[in-house]
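If you are new to this repository, start here. Below is one unmodified record pulled from the training split, so you can see the exact layout before writing a loader.
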Amino acid sequence: MRVVVLASTSPYRLQLLRQLGIAFEISAPLFQERIDQEVAPELQVKHLALQKARSLAGQYPDALIIGADQVFVDARGRILGKPGTPEKAVEQLRWMAGRRHTFYTGLSVYDSRTGDSLTDYVAFTVTLRALTLEQIRRYVRRENPVDCAGSFRIEGLGIALMEKMEGDDYTSLIGLPLIKLTEFLMQFGIEVL
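And here is the target side for that same chain:
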């Protein structure tokens, strides 16, 4: 069986990939991501996911390398990433409350032996409840979601912020769309089942 590598240090992506029950290694990508407001989010996350996967080809010359990236587009049409600080998380959630937002998660599986790759994205939409500033502050204090696009952890208490969720694969909201990943791995000869 081919070596499978997850090009990510995200504990959320690691946990998701473990659900598939396949052997894999993890390694930090050697690619610095930047958000460009001039590039469509669908294209941006696909590009970033592929570049993260390709960045490890030198370390893993005969592997299937998985790259992923996520941004969300707020109701104003701005592309946002991780808040980085509790203050910015509160600010993001204040703006997001009571509105609909779309998350774009890019996924790429890169074959470092052949240079072939499969790359796509998955969109997922969330509508947050109307929230008070105190509710938002309490949530941020409890979960400290500074490393999450959108400033919430849907797999945790973040579910309480939601009014509605729409999409084909909820795992894309966490950062690694497992339905699409399973399809890609099968195309590369990795039978998950």
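Two things worth knowing about this chain: Residues 3-187 form a domain with the Maf protein fold (CATH 3.90.950.10). DSSP finds six helices and seven strands in the chain.
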